[in-house]
Amino acid sequence: MDLSVINPILLIAALMSAATPILLAATGELVVERAGVLNLGVEGMMILGAICGFAIAVETGSPLTGFVAAAIGGAMLSLLFALLTQVALANQVASGLALTLFGLGLSALLGQRYVGVKPPRMGDMNFGPLADIPVLGPILFSHDPILYLGIALVAAVWATLKYTRVGLILRAVGENHDAAHALGYKVVRIRTLAIMFGGACAGMGGAYISLIRVPQWTEGMTAGVGWIALALVVFASWKPWRVLLGAYLFGGITQLQLNLQGAGVAIPVEYLAMSPYIITIVVLVILSADKSAAPGSLGRTFHASH
Amino acid sequence: MTPLLSLTGLTKAYPGVVANDDVSLHIQPGEVHALLGENGAGKSTLVKMIYGLVKPDQGDMQMHGRPFTPSEPRAARAAGVGMVFQHFSLFDALTVAENIALGMETAPRLRDLAQRIREVSDTYGLPLSPDRVVGDLSAGERQRVEIIRCLLQEPKLLIMDEPTSVLTPQEVDILFETLRKLSAEGTAILYISHKLEEIRALCDAATILRLGKVVGECIPRETTARDMAEMMVGKVLGTPTRTAGAQEEVVLTLNGLSRPSPSAFGMPLRDVSVTLRKGEVLGIGGVAGNGQDELLAALSGEMRAPAGMISFKGEDIGTLGPNARRTRGLLTAPEERLGHAAVPDMSLTENAMLTGAAREGLEKHGFLDWSAARGLAERIIEAFDVRTPGPGNAARSLSGGNLQKFVIGREVLQRPDVLVVNQPTWGVDASAAASIRQALLDLATGGAAVIVISQDLDELMEIADRFAALNEGRLSAPQPTSGLSVEQIGLMMGGAHGMEVAHV
User: Fold this and answer.
1) Would you say the pTM of this structure is higher than 0.90?
2) Which residues contact A178 (CB under 8 A, 6 or more apart)?
């Protein structure tokens, strides 16, 4: 066992990258749930985004186009969910589970030709001399653009929910859809847009795995990250910055346990592999012990009856 | 003079029912106009058409002599119509200022809005802090949020849907003060209520609806409450009567009952003590949210109490669950009809089984006697005039008043020794309310003790022998109802809950 092989700077830089798929998916789901919709199909939208992004990046040679395609793919799949739950008034839990299964199957079908193909690489952002700063340079200024987009997205979602009228209306719809309807807000339209935003974010999170984290395509490669993202939103008490914290915690421990495995620590691999899930949830459960409650209309079907 | 708002021949039909049939109504600027009618008379549909939530099938609406066809609430608000809803359309988790901003077309920045909220609340004597979270406010304060939300848009017509049902008498006085002031400034008010004395005190004109049609118009100040009530229901009303009073034997004693509330925004019970005798009707008043639901839960057994706090016929029952208490003869009927008193998607037979199984012996060795349950349901429907095709219909399919008759009747027919009811006539029309009250009195005459928890003070004065009020989870000492004045009652209910009359 040799812990000196673990480089803390590289570890931190890597954890940010490991956390980004969860961060993107969870931020999108946070917006969906703040609008009062529980979409359990995150995993399905992620995996569909992963293959859409991968396929388009391979065909066009542009990873950025791939991410755009991933966002569109995720949003299209979420539109199916919106159709089921907002128009046909189907049960949200069942529709979300169905969406995950459908996404897994559809992505496997779409991805048949792409197994074993290498995607084009996305370059890192060039911050010039900033990247040469010791310690901070490699940690903060040596990443791909999507990672920064993820952090910017958290900040944007937080500011929008807290300071803008759009955010206030979104929260109002999630808090009490009957009251929002009585005031003349278009509940179904607002929720559909939120669901599509969540789908696009989940799609990009999936593409981050297939294009950057593990640059290849394998069936079911999201491996439950979507479910972690869902849990994260709940344990983060529907607060954007806590989602960031939880995602980095999860990414950090994932990365750390990989390094520990590499260093040959005398803990069974199974325990190391489960540690990110357990520690993240324990920490967030402790954090969420305060009063903050779920959006009042979360998961409830809205029917505009006069 | 052109009326502010003219409705001519408005008709709106839903599948199977005509909610409004050729309704005409005229409101002058500054007029306080009452809209009277029982549940299902079409009052809500009519105001929803004015507020743009529902489109009329036929008829014509004019504002200031010009056609007025709001396609959505936004358009109605832009035209100067404000509405204070019966079930407050507020968001518990948001602050007062955020709630108000949501109801405005072009909301200013929150800081400027907070300033304007303070100004308006000062002008109209409605104290309110813009930063508080609405979930923590009392019912009266929540209503102020709605009113201020409307006033900030300087409406020409303010629609108020049953505004006083959740207020203490003092709060009602302050509200009326505000409404009179608005009316003097030229704002017309369309006031929906079934509290006739209030309408007589406040309104300049009244239109009475029955089954979707206008059945009469009157000047409330010159018409007696009884005449208006009879126009509303279309028949002569009986007054509940009773003969016997309380007997000596004590059946139920609460001794320093203190319990935390099971819900987040609830009210804990604090040191509630009371003694109930056979044949007595105890009325418990108080503004909603002061521990009524918790008291009912503590009595029904949904919320257990430590030993020594609740004694029933000399037995300590605090630690027993609902079924054990039912078997002993302590029955309860909670306020929430759909979801608490009755399961919405189950048939009336199944709902009769749910509370009747223990006491009526409908369950034998774990098997259910459905034919007996159906018999019980049929007896309830028969005895309480529940309008439904039969006991196989789902509870959800009944109108509010009919379901209320069913859930009260279900407990009354199980021969309780003590019956606790919460809001027995809430949302029930006048004739059904009278029959429910009569049933409760008959029960007391038969020797049972009845606790009636209600927001309706007139109801409590009419049927209760003694009156007590819940305030912040504390129960005042019960007083005999005869000779109790409205002021005394108001003080027992805790006064005006931090309210002050405008500029005293």
Assistant:
1) no
2) A302, B89
